[in-house]
Design goal:
The chain is about 45% helix and about 10% strand. With about 325 residues, it is of the alpha/beta class. The strands form two sheets. Strands 3, 4, 5, 6, 7, 8, 9, 10 and 11 form a nine-stranded parallel β-sheet that branches. A two-stranded antiparallel sheet has the order 1-2.
């Protein structure tokens, strides 16, 4: 598969851009487990052009992460063009435009999925960014604003005509947010449209190897993007790749391996952020790494309330000692939960 100037393997796996999730530490872990293409957290165009500290920090890229894209969102064309030019200076492999975020504070301003209510503006903005930068531009969006406006088949053609070099489609409308089941039918229609020439990447509800293989086979997408299923399970990329290559399911990591991974993730987070903020953002990952362990409630509470790095290391050591080389799935079966 070719995405812009980047040659990827067949059936590549993408890490979705997610606020407060896909920072350098998490990207490091996902790359370790075989993510083929990754993105930064999505970045506000307004924050970037105003030199906002947090927005500028999200431009930090590292060679071992490549290929990697920077995703931008905004509702004003001039601001988005300026932000794209600034993002280009960080030397990503491509710039992705976010027309898919359903969060109210973003969509209500007309940014993210809010752009699905003004398709002419979406097309004009995309065209302006493609003309302004010298690197490839891609787009991520949804099926439409609501059930009465699932317009992605037509919009995909119009976006392609602007010169974008790839399109990711989340199989829900903005009105759905993340509720209900993702509908890949229209994603498949876009991919099978003979007028479409650019790669189509499917997104939504990919939660394991079997589901990923089914979506590739049933809808013919060029790639698959994985978002929420990576929370506490970055090894999902390795699981899917192994299943696609061999047809065999891998066992999940042992608790020992998860504890080692949590420590590595913490160390990488501390490299890029100040201690307290790093620990606060790690809490979501800590909670999910050990999901399903029996009798874990008290330990989990300690892990999610401590602000002391040494204490957290001790807690992770205690987890290793108590649950050892077992796997969450094994323990679930043993304890009947």
């Amino acid at each position: 598969m070719k995405l812009g100037n980047t040659i990827l393997r067949e059936q590549p796996l993408f890490l979705a851009p997610m606020e407060d999730i896909t920072d350098p530490s998490f990207r490091y872990i996902c790359k370790m487990f075989g993510a083929d293409f990754m993105y930064t957290e999505f970045i506000s165009s307004d924050g970037l052009i105003r030199d906002g500290k947090s927005s500028l920090k999200k431009l930090d890229l590292f060679d071992y992460e490549r290929p990697i894209g920077i995703q931008l969102y905004g509702h004003i064309i001039d601001s988005m063009v300026d932000a794209a030019l600034r993002a280009e200076e960080a030397r990503p492999d491509l710039i992705d435009i976010n027309f898919g975020c359903p969060v109210r504070k973003i969509a209500a301003r007309g940014a993210g999925a809010g752009m699905l209510r003004d398709i002419p503006l979406m097309i004009e903005m995309t065209s302006a960014i493609v003309r302004a930068v010298k690197i490839p531009v891609t787009v991520k969006t949804r099926l439409g604003w609501d059930d009465d406006s699932k317009i992605i088949v037509d919009v995909a053609e119009r976006l392609q005509d602007t010169g974008i070099q790839g399109l990711t489609i989340h199989g829900r409308t903005r009105a759905q947010m993340y509720r209900g089941e993702a509908d890949w039918t229209l994603i498949g229609e876009v991919k099978s449209n003979p007028r479409m020439r650019i790669p189509i990447i499917g997104n939504g509800d990919i939660n394991g190897p079997e589901k990923a293989k089914l979506m590739f086979e049933k809808y013919g997408v060029d790639g698959i993007m994985i978002g929420r299923a990576t929370f506490g399970r970055p090894w999902i990329f390795r699981e899917i790749r192994h299943y696609l290559d061999t047809g065999e399911l891998l066992r999940e990591p042992s608790v020992d391996e998860k504890a080692d991974l949590a420590l590595l993730h913490l160390d990488k987070s501390l490299e890029h952020k100040e201690g307290k903020s790093s620990i606060l953002e790690m809490r979501r990952h800590f909670s999910n790494y050990f999901k399903g362990l029996p009798g874990f409630r008290e330990t989990r509470l300690k892990l999610l309330t401590s602000l002391d790095v040494d204490e957290i290391r001790t807690i992770l050591g205690d987890i290793r000692e108590k649950w050892g080389s077992c796997r969450s799935s094994d323990l679930t079966g043993i304890y009947g939960i």
